[in-house]
């Protein structure tokens, strides 16, 4: 049943993002785009300065901040709800000190103990901040033969481990948002992402414990074939359909590039289900 899922609009201030890289690199253009997405129905704008597409190289913290430092203050002062898409604790700290209150971390809190601890300390220092913790796999090696059978239990175990870690460190579950990862974060095989989507309701136990669920399928490569091998900006319909399926199966947030179309889909779902 439709439950007032929040729309997260994607704002990439990168030269190399797979979908809209290079389009919004200065503060004026970024603010215009953020305002437009809000008008179209976005509840939150997720801003990222580093492409996390698996084929792109990681950039330095200095370079990431150079891209963000003139844009973040403008967006935050506008009153638009902002989420920061960043893996680096140093970038987190600057954003939080500017007044930000939501982080989207595709590294799942960090790939080293040291980085993880820094992030936990920041979450302790800023008690009103929500954190999106994303699951991902190393796809540089071939998939194990049993990946399709193993992926749901693997994601569930990851979620439980992160919830336990954060709660042990004083981070309440109401602040935790769990993301299954999609596309290249799971596998080069599109069927793995479709399998996770088909079984998205399996993660509802995390919601029963007080966390929320986050889904980001928008324009990703696993949708290419069903979109007749279209370029990312032409994968709108498959992006919306997959997001709607996620909503019906428990997603509290859907991260999308095409906010207008997503809002129409959600309004339609709401009307069908007669949910006020």
Could you explain the architecture of this structure?
Helices cover 41% and strands 13% of the residues. The chain is an alpha/beta fold. It has one domain (6-273): Dihydropteroate synthase-like (TIM Barrel, Alpha-Beta Barrel), CATH 3.20.20. An 8-stranded parallel beta barrel has the order 1-2-3-4-5-6-7-8, surrounded by 5 helices. Helix 9 links the parallel strand 7 and strand 8 (253-256). Helix 4 packs parallel to helix 5, helix 6 (147-168) packs across helix 7 and helix 9 (236-248) crosses helix 10 (259-273). The longest helix has 22 residues, at 147-168. The chain starts with 5 loop residues before the first strand and ends with a helix. The relative contact order is 0.14. The mean pLDDT is 93.
Summarize the structure.
The protein is an alpha/beta fold and 276 residues long.
Relevant terms:
TIM Barrel; 41% helix; 276 residues; eight-stranded parallel barrel; 8 strands; alpha/beta
**What is the overall pLDDT average?**
93
Low-confidence stretches: none
Indicate the overall shape. Answer: globular
Largest sheet: 8 strands, parallel, barrel
Approximately how much helix is present in the residues? 40-55%
Quantity of strands, as a count = 8
Within CATH, the superfamily carries the name Dihydropteroate synthase-like
> Total number of helical segments?
10
Element string (H = helix, E = strand) = EHEHHEHEHEHEHHEHEH
**β-sheet strand percentage:** 5-15%
Strand-pairing-aware structural class:
alpha/beta
């Amino acid at each position: 049943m439709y439950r007032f899922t929040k729309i997260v609009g994607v704002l990439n201030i990168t030269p190399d993002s797979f979908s809209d890289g290079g389009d919004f690199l200065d503060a004026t253009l970024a603010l215009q785009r953020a305002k437009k997405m809000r008008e179209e129905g976005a509840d939150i704008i997720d801003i990222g300065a580093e492409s996390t597409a698996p084929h792109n190289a990681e950039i330095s913290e200095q370079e990431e901040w150079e891209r963000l430092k003139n844009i973040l203050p403008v967006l935050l002062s506008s009153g638009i709800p902002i989420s920061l898409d960043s893996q680096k604790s140093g970038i987190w700290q600057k954003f939080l000190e500017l007044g930000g209150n939501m982080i989207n971390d595709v590294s799942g809190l960090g790939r080293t103990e040291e980085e993880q601890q820094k992030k936990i300390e920041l979450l302790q220092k800023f008690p009103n901040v929500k954190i999106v913790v994303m699951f991902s796999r190393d796809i540089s090696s071939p998939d194990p033969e049993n990946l399709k059978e193993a992926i749901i239990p693997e994601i569930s175990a990851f979620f439980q481990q992160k919830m336990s870690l954060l709660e042990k460190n004083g981070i309440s579950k109401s602040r935790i948002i769990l993301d299954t990862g999609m596309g290249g974060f799971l596998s080069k095989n599109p069927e793995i992402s479709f399998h996770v989507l088909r079984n998205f309701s399996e993660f509802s136990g995390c919601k029963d414990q007080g966390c929320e669920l986050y889904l980001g399928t928008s324009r990703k490569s696993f949708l290419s074939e069903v979109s007749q091998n279209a370029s990312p900006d032409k994968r709108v319909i498959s992006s919306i359909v997959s997001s709607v399926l996620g909503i019906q199966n428990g997603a509290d947030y859907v991260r999308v590039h095409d906010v207008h179309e997503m809002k129409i889909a959600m309004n339609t779902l709401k009307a069908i289900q007669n949910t006020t």
